[in-house]
Write a structure and sequence with these properties.
Blueprint: H1 5-12, E1 14-17, E2 20-24, E3 27-29, H2 38-46, E4 52-53, E5 57-58, H3 59-63, H4 67-71, E6 82-87, H5 91-103, E7 108-113, H6 118-121, H7 133-146, E8 151-156, H8 166-175, E9 180-184, H9 199-206, E10 214-217, H10 223-233, E11 237-240, H11 250-260, H12 269-287, H13 289-303, H14 311-319, H15 323-337
Parallel strand pairs: 3-11, 4-6, 5-6, 6-7, 7-8, 8-9, 9-10, 10-11
Antiparallel strand pairs: 1-2
Helix pairs in contact: 2-12, 5-7, 10-11, 12-13, 12-15, 13-14
């Protein structure tokens, strides 16, 4: 039976990474160190993320069987599709790490050429490869050869304002076999300062030689901005990082706005508490009671950001020693704020 026009449009808009189908205009959760672990990914998946990544994993740590690196390989069926992101400065180590990561059975392998922090870049990894494009290409080619999975890359515009060569780099990476490219609209020197410039990301999309999906990243913190950048730069999807911290429902909000043009109501206090509690439950399930409660403390400020007179509750949450103590405080927060009009978000 022939497909109707609606079906044809849907099929033509389908975004694929290799054989992996992501739907039309997917929203990706960025890999973030000490943030995008399985508990955080769980609430983002529920919040509407279409594709997620692990925290970035050191290739050197992985091949040396470091416990912290190996733990980051943990993925769960409900997270799919999910990619494992690797970083490193040694080509051989990256090739070996790709083989190890592939055995963990993710849906794809992603290479980090964008992390700007000194601890990574000063070791010749992450964004440091933007200073040595031939090595970046060579490293990527070896990773592509080392795995049966699709390989993707996340990077930046360049090292600084004088080396914004991402349009050429995108072609070279595509030519050696990557299946998708995500570009953060800043240079390494900018770190996360200033305004992300998506102009060159749009230019990659305009390049008739490019046929792989191009995802934009940087400063998308509202449904309105997502629609604006989608229309202006023609990207195949958007990756969201910092804006999802404390607001994992942003993916659902963007999808609703793109579909209807309407803004979903901000989550009320009950929604926020319930999401924080789910996050806590996943954290304990993955890390155990003591570590799960401890590492969850960093997230409370974000979940309740902008809540008036919240400091006493925050202090109690970060000092609460047991799960039951935390749950009791969360219940008190609902009682204290359930009648307060929603103005945060």
């Amino acid at each position: 039976m022939a497909a109707n026009n609606g079906d044809l449009v849907k099929i033509s808009n389908m975004v694929r990474i290799g054989d992996l189908e992501l739907g039309a205009f997917p929203l990706l959760l960025a890999p973030m160190e000490d943030v995008s672990d399985p508990p955080f990914r769980a609430v983002c998946k529920e919040g509407g993320a279409d594709l997620m990544y692990t925290e970035f994993i050191s290739s050197e740590g992985l091949i040396r069987d470091a416990a912290k690196s190996k733990q980051k390989l943990d993925i769960f069926e409900y997270e799919r599709p999910i990619g494992i992101q690797l970083f490193g400065g040694n080509v051989d180590s990256m090739r070996e790490a790709a083989e190890i990561a592939s055995a963990a059975n993710p849906d794809l392998i992603d290479i980090n050429y964008g992390c700007p922090v000194k601890a990574v870049a000063c070791k010749g990894a992450g964004a440091a490869l933007l200073q040595d494009i031939p090595k970046m290409v060579r490293m990527t080619e070896e990773v592509v050869k080392a795995t049966h999975l699709p390989v993707t890359v996340k990077t930046r515009l360049g090292w600084d304002d004088t080396t914004k060569n991402i349009v050429e780099v995108a072609e070279r990476l595509q030519d050696i076999g990557i299946k998708a490219l995500t570009v953060h609209g800043r240079t390494r020197v900018q770190m996360y300062k200033g305004v992300a410039d998506w102009t060159l990301i749009g230019r990659i999309k305009e390049n008739p030689r490019m046929h792989i999906p191009i995802f934009g990243n940087g400063d998308i913190d509202s449904p309105q901005k997502a629609l604006e950048y989608k229309d202006r730069y023609g990207v195949d999807g958007i990756m969201i990082g910092r804006a999802a911290i404390g607001s994992p429902w942003i993916f659902r909000e963007i999808k609703h706005y793109l579909k209807t043009g309407l803004q979903l109501p901000h989550p009320d206090m009950i929604d926020r508490v319930n999401t924080a509690r789910k996050h806590l439950d996943f954290s304990i399930r993955w890390k155990g009671d003591k570590l799960g409660i401890f590492e969850m403390r960093r997230h409370y400020t974000n979940y309740f950001k902008g809540t008036p007179d919240f400091k006493p509750f925050r202090t109690r949450l970060v000092e609460a020693p047991t799960y039951d103590d935390v749950v009791q405080i969360l219940d008190e927060i609902i009682d204290a704020y359930s009648a307060v009009p929603v103005s945060i978000g």
